[in-house]
Amino acid sequence: MKTSFDFEKPIADLQHQIEKVKQVADKTKVDMSATLAELDAKLEEAKKDIYSNLSGWQQVQISRHPERPYTLQYIELICDDFIELHGDRTVKDDKAIVGGFATINGQTVMVIGHQKGTNTKLRQYRNFGMANPEGYRKALRLMKLAEKFNKPVVTFIDTPGAYPGLEAEERGQGEAIARNLLEMSVLKVPIVCFVVGEGASGGALGIGVGDKVYMLEHTWYSVISPESCSSILWRSWDYKERAAEVLKLTAEDMHKNGLVDGIIPEPIGGAHQDPEAMAATIKTRILEDIEALKQKDTDTLINERIEKFCAMGVVVE
Q1: Tell me: the pLDDT tens digits for 139-169?
Q2: Backbone phi, psi, residue 195, to 5°
Q3: What's the confidence (pLDDT) of residue 32?
Q4: Which of 1.25.40.20, 3.40.50.2300, 1.10.10.10, 3.90.226.10 would CATH assign to domain 60-310?
């Protein structure tokens, strides 16, 4: 049974009707093609109407869809091969962040991303995509390795936040993320980042400083999740829908405010409806951007990256 949300009920109802008509047609051998064509047209119209008018909270819900593709699935669909590299050489191998060398149409890249897990057991194994300090230190080690061999870096961001546990703080969670921000700012190779699901706080930003930063259409990127914002401001999660609106966390809001470089359109209904098409769109964007960024000399690349992020949030009165 596919997961659907409350706002998708009209779509689910039409799909159920279509299935019923098909069953009747098969059973009675009556030509129901006209009825099916009419229902199909209504279904497409309902999809366009619903998915083009989503609220902030509805966008958040789609970004968390359990069938949505995660980093390893994108790697499988986009890359010709992939060699995963493990460990931060200090503590352990954080399973919430994966990374390694890969080739895309003959172009070698270092791919790094959050991995949530596709079922309950794997989600626990991956800590629900919430990385510990060693995850960010592993990511940094891989980025420095890419720099050593002059290979571009591609990151996939999808996390509800860095792991907030006591042991993570004891091992220097804040320092690990801050170090990544510093090092990514001056990395001597092109960096292309994609928010493919949730982009929460420093957990997302820890692998999110790039020459090009994109958000998929139904994703969110914010300093705090709507639930946490609601619990702080209203002492309850009941206002999460309102929080999602005022946080301005959607791809459209972020692009309008100049915080991301572009929005990658998704298949109607979200990336989980057609992962292959979504991966093909991302692949095209990766190859085009890397080709363009490779034309710039190192100093220009770094200066433009720093200037882009320094310009964010600047207000002139």
Answers
A1: 999 999 999 999 999 999 999 999 999 999 9
A2: -85, 110
A3: 83
A4: 3.90.226.10
Tokens of 268: 């109607």
Which tens digit of pLDDT belongs to each residue from 167-216?
999 999 999 999 999 999 999 999 999 999 999 989 999 999 999 999 99
DSSP the chain: -----GGGHHHHHHHHHHHHHHHHHHHH----HHHHHHHHHHHHHHHHHHHTS--HHHHHHHHT-TTS--HHHHHHHH-SEEEE----SSS---TTEEEEEEEETTEEEEEEEE---SSHHHHHHTGGG---HHHHHHHHHHHHHHHHTT--EEEEEEES-S---HHHHHTTHHHHHHHHHHHHHT-SS-EEEEEEEEEEHHHHHTT---SEEEEETT-EEESS-HHHHHHHHSSSGGGHHHHHHHTT-BHHHHHHTTSSSEEE---TT-GGG-HHHHHHHHHHHHHHHHHHHTTS-HHHHHHHHHHHHHTTT----
CB atoms under 10 Å from CB of 11, counted, come to: 21
Residues of the chain scoring pLDDT < 70: 1-3
